[in-house]
Design goal:
two-stranded antiparallel sheet, single chain, 71 residues
C-alpha cells in the first residue's frame, strides 16, 4: 500500500502519500500524552514514544522553557 491518495492529477493518475509508521504506531496515545504534559520533561517523555512521525513540534511551559524540534 502506498498510502492515502492525496491528489487526482488526471483521469488515470493519482498521487499517494506514504507516511512513515502511519499504520504502525498508536498516535492517539501519544497525542494524549502531549496534551497531559505539565512540563518540558513530560513533553519530551511523550515525544520519546515515537508513535507519531511528526514534522515540527513546539512546547513551552510555565517556567519559561521553550523547546522546538524539526524532523
Amino acid at each position: 500500500h502506498h498510502g492515502p491518495c492525496t491528489k487526482k492529477e488526471d483521469e488515470n493518475t493519482y498521487l499517494a502519500a506514504r507516511i512513515a509508521r502511519l499504520y504502525d504506531g498508536f498516535a492517539p496515545r501519544q497525542f494524549l500524552e502531549f496534551a497531559k504534559s505539565k512540563s518540558l520533561a513530560d513533553f519530551k517523555k511523550a515525544l520519546a514514544m515515537q508513535d507519531f512521525q511528526y514534522q515540527n513540534m513546539t512546547c513551552a511551559d510555565k517556567v519559561g522553557n521553550i523547546f522546538y524540534i524539526c524532523y
